[in-house]
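USER: For my understanding, would you kindly supply a protein sequence with its structure tokens?

ASSISTANT:
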Amino acid sequence: MKKLLAGSALAALSMTGVAFADADSTTACLITKTDTNPFFVKMREGAAAKAEELGINLLSFAGRVDGDHETQVAAIETCIAEGAKGILLTASDTSSIVPAVKQARDAGLVVIALDTPLSPIDAADATFATDNFLAGELIGQWAAAALGDEAANARIGMLDLSVSQPTVGVLRDQGFLTGFGIDVKDASKWGDEEDPRIVGNEVTAGNEEGGRTAMENLLAIDPTINVVYTINEPAAAGAYEALKSIGRENDVLIVSVDGGCPGVQNVVDGVIGATSQQYPLLMASKGIEAIAAFAKDGTLPQPTEGKDFFDTGVALVTDQPVDGVDSIDTAEGADLCWG
């Protein structure tokens, strides 16, 4: 029997896919940053498909926008109250969410971070994610190689996620700079670098409008920017539109992370030079499997050997391969996008 949850306690939550089969079935929760970003839409699809396959009831929640920490806390509280066995979480604020996560774990739920490690990472029982530092490093290496000798004179605009500096944003940013050959100073945060090639950092909220505004702000500081790092592909699309509005869409190198189907198409179309592809559907489906195992006999998921998280893989996607940096082309990237 299926029923929808309602009432003032849930009125502020963006919630989808709520169902109960019977009183004895296992319930799992998926809490994402938004329900509009295609990355999280695909994540929800992966969780829902695996939950249906395993006979698990799935409660799906999302913030109104990226950075909506309060809604995620309310979702965790709801999951505890509904007797869920586990939570899959992409945290908007990776530090501030920790007390709510502790509350869930103390109540006997397994909490698995997806894509975005908590701070500290062991605040969750496990993390299923792309190696986000490597994802950034790959696009940094590619950009430096693509520029060749001109990399020494690059003017770089950094389009980050949010001022709270969630781990996913820090890892990608610092990975990119490391790959490009820039000293990152304190690798646990972005924005303290002293390399004169960096024009500045602006935040985007991970969406197209934010990317456009951030790019406009950086261009106001230095209109000669010729390399743009973006936290994700929606932000890259916005940056491209800002550059196009001043006739510079063809002479600025944009690199990004996500590898979604629209993003791969933007590589084909020349909007993005290269992107690092990750696999959110796999993250979510593996997460549901882990909750099912925990509900059955208390088994906790284990990290990939040599890492403190379960690595779901990453691949550089570009049609302009460079020596020394492994990549796949857009045809393969389109076949794999967000599987």
